[in-house]
Design a protein that fits this description.
149 residues; mainly alpha; 0% strand
Length: 149
């Protein structure tokens, strides 16, 4: 890397997991200053990028998610402590909130024969799931059948 700014921007792009293999291949082909690239010359560079993706992306993403979860849980505890309720009353308030937030599910059954058949087909979990799985498998075969030349 030529300077610190380019290095930081490169590591930021790699930490986003967008196009990091291309960057890794470019840096693993680098040989030195004022020399051309040689495929596979810097194998340790590739290990660095793989390590950075695993540690940088997964570890810090989980750390960030954990901090958010802890702050959310603390805010919930503070809210319940402000109401001066004991455990049973807190559960009752939570249940009442859940009941008030729910809306009844109203399903209008279509009148036409074709629309009614489609409605019944979609409502039947087994048949519709099998149909969708068949579409996915046919799509996989159609993508596998394409080739160049």
């Amino acid at each position: 890397m030529d300077n610190v700014v380019i290095a930081m921007l490169t590591l930021f792009a790699v930490s986003n997991n967008e196009g990091w293999p291309d960057v890794m291949y470019a840096y693993s082909d680098a040989t030195g200053v004022e020399t051309g690239p040689k495929p596979g010359a810097g194998l340790m560079n590739a290990f660095f990028f793989i390590f950075f993706v695993f540690v940088g992306s997964f570890f810090f993403l989980n750390l960030f998610t954990g901090v958010l979860f802890m702050n959310f849980e603390k805010a919930q505890r503070d809210e319940k402590d402000a109401m001066h309720l004991d455990g049973e009353e807190v559960r009752w308030v939570d249940m009442m909130k859940m009941i008030c937030d729910e809306e009844p599910e109203i399903i209008k059954i279509p009148k036409g024969k074709l629309r009614r058949w489609c409605f019944d087909f979609v409502q039947d979990d087994g048949a519709f799931a099998n149909f969708i799985m068949g579409c996915i498998i046919l799509n996989i075969f159609s993508m596998a059948a394409n080739f160049e030349g």
